[in-house]
Amino acid sequence: MAKTANINVRIDPETKAGAEKLFASFGITVTDAINIFLRKSIMEGGLPFDMKQPRYNAETEAAMQEARNIMNGDISTKSYSSARELFAELDAEMDGE
User: Fold this and answer.
1) Per-residue pLDDT tens for 15-39?
2) Is 84 left (phi over 0), alpha (psi -120 to 50) or beta?
3) pTM of the model
4) Cα angle vertex 53, ends 77, 40, to 5°?
5) Largest Cα span, the chain
6) Helix, strand, coil shares, percent, the chain, to 5
7) Which of the residues in the chain have pLDDT under 70?
C-alpha cells in the first residue's frame, strides 16, 4: 500500500456539504477531488484554471458604475414620497410619448 500524508483543511460546513454532494454525484470523495486537484496543479505547474475577476458586458459595467456613483453621492437621484407618486410620473411619461 502506498504511503500517505495528511492535510487538514478548515472550511465552513455548508461548503463541505456542497462539495461532498457534488463529488458524490461523480462517484468520488472530497479526498479524491483534492488529490485530483493537486495532481492537476502539479501537471500544469500552477492552478489548473484561470484566476480572473468576473467580467460583465459594457451595459452591466455601466449600470454597476452608476450604482456606485449614486451610493457615493456623485449622482443625485429623484425620490418619491409614495409608490403612487412614482407611478403617476411614469404614467405621465408614457402619455407624453
Assistant:
1) 999 999 999 999 999 999 999 999 9
2) alpha
3) 0.53
4) 160
5) 81
6) 60, 0, 40
7) 1, 97
Q: 64 near 56, Cβ under 8 Å? A: yes
* C-alpha to C-alpha distance for 97 and 87, rounded to whole angstroms: 16
Q: Quick count: other Cβ atoms within 10 Å of Cβ 28?
A: 14
Q: In the prediction, which pLDDT does 29 show?
A: 96
Name 37's Cβ contacts closer than 8 Å, sequence gap at least 6. 48
Total residues found in the chain within this entry: 97
Contact indicator for 33, 19 with CB cutoff of 8 Å: yes
pLDDT of amino acid 32? 96
